Amino acid sequence: MADIMPMIPSDRQVIDGYGPGQFCVSGQWRVGAVVVLPDRTQAWEATDAASLTLEDFAVVLAAEPKVEILLLGTGPTMKMIPKALRQSLREQGVVVEPMDSRAVCRTYNVLLAEGRRVAAAMLPV
To answer: DSSP labels for 6-42?
Structure first.
């Protein structure tokens, strides 16, 4: 099996793993929801997928370089978000891909290694 980690520049944030209520990003465990951008990781105030609004994604929308793909981890199971929210993000140039947070952990590093402008916003598992 090929190791993609050497293809990711050392100054990028990588998702190393997850556990109950927490994520490990670039060797640091973080409790609760997080937003992972290629250059930084920060706590995310979101608590559930059903109540998300465009404002919850302000840090992603403000990122430079612009994020093209947002992997949205909706917790232990995949949940859809309202069509209006998906459309609002698309109008800002961001394609959102909702999936369970474990799938985001697996997908983010692959897209980062491909040089994609990706971000992950994850609710805990």
So the answer is: GGS-TTS--EEEEETTEEEETTEEEES-EEEETTEEE
